[in-house]
Write a structure and sequence with these properties.
With 384 residues, the chain is an alpha/beta fold. Helices cover 45% and strands 14% of the residues. It has 3 domains: 196 residues, Rossmann fold (3-Layer(aba) Sandwich), CATH 3.40.50.11540; 73 residues, Ubiquitin-like (UB roll) (Roll); 85 residues, de novo design (two linked rop proteins), CATH 1.20.1440.230. Bound molecules: flavin mononucleotide and iron/sulfur cluster.
């Protein structure tokens, strides 16, 4: 499958969440987990971890308390899909949380909401109240509360998110242990992205076999893409996974696309010459931000902008990331200003690779994705 296929599962309003939950709860926890594993659904927050497996590990932990956290921090530049879900189909998210709670044995759930989305709180609380009534009727003891983020990109990383919920500085923890083992308040915790939770409801509603029909062998299902940049069709689009970048550009480009950033700043920049061979979601990323750049854009400005963001958002806990982000930024500025020779870029590429292998969390580890793909493919723009 490399063609582009538009779908409408995520925002469809013909899903009666209460009924889907009622039917699902007739199954045992093991059956629900097995169906999720068989469906091939992977997390939509960026790391792409299999959802069924995450829930299974959390369910197996012995603990008096467990938690479900919906990660709605959505700080990746160019991503605005989770907000759209929370506005249009919030009940599906809550239902996915309730399903997870039943499977792992949690009584309390939290939505960790990006601080800029504070204007959604009143409407969300109304839906949560309604949902609590639905759960009462279904005989489910599960409560959901909103926890407001404070505007730091790093707090989207699941362990930094948990630290911040515990009232500490938002800094990633060492892993292992993973949150499913030791998470919020030291208890087993499932952290899932907003869209992932809706994915679990889609599997429950349409069934494993129908879900497996969608996407490719490695990437099942549909996915929301936040499309921005030089596109006449900016916005959130649900697509079947497995299309080539060239088909994506045909649909969303402006006829002059020279590069597409897939997976946000943590992802890769695909140049025109690789559009055909690059399949979105295959070996690259499950993040939803896709930014299109046409020939009027300076890729030096693009990578400068990303590095500026990284240098600002690095939590500073580990040296490779704290110092590396700043040195990459200063480095490309020096080459551009002819204070350093072009070959200095090779040293910067090595530094980015060092950051990949030695940084503590996904922020520092992923800088190399966009840095290397932009510097290697648009080297001439880094110099003149
Ligand atoms: C710097 C950084 C920021 C992140 N921001 C988010 C975010 O805003 N939302 C999200 O769902 N996951 C984010 N993640 C990924 C989470 O750590 C985690 O993998 C995800 O919430 C797990 O959910 P999933 O399995 O449903 O994808 C981020 C990771 C890193 C390293
Ligand atoms: S990689 Fe960066 S963001 Fe992550 S812990 Fe290290 S300094 Fe903090």
């Amino acid at each position: 499958m490399s063609k582009l296929n538009k779908l409408g599962y995520i925002f469809s309003t013909n899903c009666n969440c209460k009924n889907v939950l009622k039917e699902t709860f007739k199954k045992s926890n093991d059956e629900i987990v097995q169906e999720l594993i068989d469906s091939g659904l992977k997390g939509r927050g960026g790391a792409g971890f299999p959802v069924g497996l995450k829930w299974k590990i959390a369910a197996e932990q012995q603990s008096d308390e467990k938690y479900v956290i919906c990660n709605a921090d959505e700080g990746e530049p160019g991503t605005f899909k989770d907000k759209e879900i929370l506005v249009k189909v919030p009940k599906k998210v809550l239902a996915g949380m309730a399903m997870c709670a039943r499977v792992i044995g949690a009584k309390q759930g939290y939505i960790y909401l990006r601080s800029e989305y504070i204007y959604l709180v009143n409407d969300l609380n109304t839906v949560i109240d309604e949902f609590h009534n639905d759960l009462k009727e279904l005989g489910i003891d599960f409560n959901i509360k909103i926890f407001m983020g404070s505007g730091a990109y790093i707090c989207g990383e699941e362990t930094a998110l948990i630290e911040s919920m515990e009232g500490k500085r938002g800094e990633p923890r060492n892993k292992p242990p993973f949150p499913v083992q030791i998470g919020y308040l030291g208890k087993p915790t499932v952290v899932n992205n907003v869209e992932t939770l809706v994915g679990t409801m889609i599997v429950a509603r349409i069934g494993v076999e129908a879900y497996k029909e969608l996407g490719t062998k490695d990437q099942r299902g549909s996915k929301l893409f936040s499309v921005s940049g030089d596109s006449p069709k900016e916005g959130v689009h649900e697509l079947e996974l497995g299309m080539s970048v060239s088909n994506f550009v045909l649909e969303y480009g402006d006829g002059d696309t020279k590069a597409v950033q897939i997976g946000g700043v943590a992802g890769f920049c695909v140049p025109r010459k690789r559009f055909k061979e690059t399949i979105i979601g295959e070996g690259n990323t499950t993040g939803g931000s896709t930014m299109l750049f046409n020939s009027t854009r300076s890729m030096y400005n693009v990578i400068h902008n990303y590095l500026d963001f990284y240098a600002e958002e690095s939590c500073g806990q580990c040296t490779p990331c704290r110092v590396g982000c700043q040195q990459l930024l200063k480095g490309i500025e020096a080459v551009k200003a002819k204070k350093k020779p072009e070959k200095y870029l090779n040293q910067l590429l090595k530094l980015a690779e060092t950051m990949r292998v030695s940084s503590k969390c996904g922020l520092g580890q992923s800088v190399t994705n966009s840095f290397t793909s932009i510097v290697n493919n648009f080297r001439e723009e880094m110099i003149y």
